[in-house]
Write the structure tokens for this entry.
Amino acid sequence: MVNEKKLKFILPESISHENVSFLLREIQNHMQKDSNIIDFAQVTRIDTFGVSLLNHIKKSFKSVSFINIRPEVSELLNTFYSPAQRSDSDKQDDSTGNILEYIIEKFSGLKKSTLEYLSLLADEIYYTVQYIFKKRGIPPGEISNQLFLMAYDSFPIVCLVSFLIGVTISITSLDQLKQLGADIYLADLVGFAMIRELVPLMAGIILAGKIGASITAEISSMKVMEEIDALKTMGLVPEKFLMVPRLIAITVAIPLLVGMADLVGIVGGLLVAKIFSDIPGSVFLEQIFKAVHFSDFLIGLIKTMVFGWVVVISAGYKGFSVGRGAAGVGIATTQSVVMSISLIIVLDCIFAIILY
Amino acid sequence: MSEIIRVQNLEVGYGDEIVLEQLNFSVEKSEIFVILGPSGCGKTTVLKTILGLIPPISGDIYFFQKPMEFLSEKSMNRIYDDIGVLYQTGALLNSINLFDNIALPVHMHYPGIPEQIKKEMVLSRLSQVGLETSWKKYPSELSEGMKKRAALARALILSPKVICCDEPSAGLDPITASRLDDLLLDLNTLLGITFVVITHELRSIEKIADKVLVLHNRGLYFYGTLEQLLETDDEFINDFLLKEKKDA
């Protein structure tokens, strides 16, 4: 293929997907700095792989010239010719040079997102209060629909997880407590941990995965399908129309969920105490009532309420700020869940610092 | 004829990216104003800017001789009282049935209206678009043509002075598209509604347009009556229209 004397690459009769890899390797290995000639005299058949190879050569080596090229092949090359693109090395140089710029950009983006998030939160508080007083701006029956979805649909999974956590912490703690002769304090541990810490945290995480994801997917799909634009041009406020029913529903649903989850979690602990330590149920419950006060239940409830609001606001924020296309819906949904869970854990830590 | 919409030195785009610049045109009362142009030229962006959904980069928009104040919710809501919009996808709310979709603007803006009157309003609009028997159906149970007609019924419910349609014929077969055009014409002649329509369909343009705006090369390429458009010897416009003829 390579004629050394004439410094000429003579291409074979056919250039196709079968030989492009070989040809590219050969041409790159033998290409000279000054002048290179590629001879098309023998070429009678060329497919799109071949065309892409030759256009790549043309763009990569400025010193190359094509000779004996048939008009139909030339036309094919021109038809599929794409403007020269920057090489990968150029891109790498740029990116390493702009790392600082990239970091600054990321931070300013974070600042902008935080402000937008807080602005949405403030708007939602305003719209919810406005709805409570004026009873206008949201569709009829929507609060009960959302309440059904949030409370009734989430009820089994929240209770199941709560029961299993109650069982798990009891089993893992009981052995240690037995060694100290303090197995009765299992009741204190289960009651306190479930009511103040584990139920709020688990309920928040489950709501983020179940309710938050569904809210983001719904709102972002509505945005992609222009339903949000349609609401705006009907003179409605989508942030009120879509979010207020969900916020009211979560506010009503959470006390029910928390109450049941606390109860079921304690029952899980009680069963373990009864089966593995022969602690009577009445003694276990009596011990819990001694250790855990109503204020603990209230703290757990307030924490879950805050987490619930965080889930709904984060879901709405990601839903309303979705990019175009179906792919944006998936990305927004994932981001919404990650954002909610991260915020819940951060807030839980802040609550712990403040309350203990 | 009096002026309904006037656009002055409008620059539209997303963020800092300018899609179209130096746009100047006006839409008169009771006319069908068609916006035409190749895919990606910014037709929908112009329409959404006129509707206040995308803020303009610069320039002014006047509705009924009053400047549009994008940042004022009150001002925008006053304008939305007189506008109906038919989106490319129909944009019906999927979670509620057709009746509730059409009744939504009435319910939200006039919550005190008795149910019987609301029902009468919805059924009359549905009958105008030939969907009176489908009022219980959900959007997912409707064909694309039915969704478009239902969206038109929703746009009509508060008797707007202007209806903006973003590619009403997109995705429809020629017969359904032609019926939709007939419907727009009837509404225009019988009720005097002004229409701003984005379309690619030459048949549709020839049938309904009074005035045509062609967008190309980041700006206004042609602005005139349908007759002027059909008589022009501009190469781009002829290519564009001939291509449409071939496609059709």
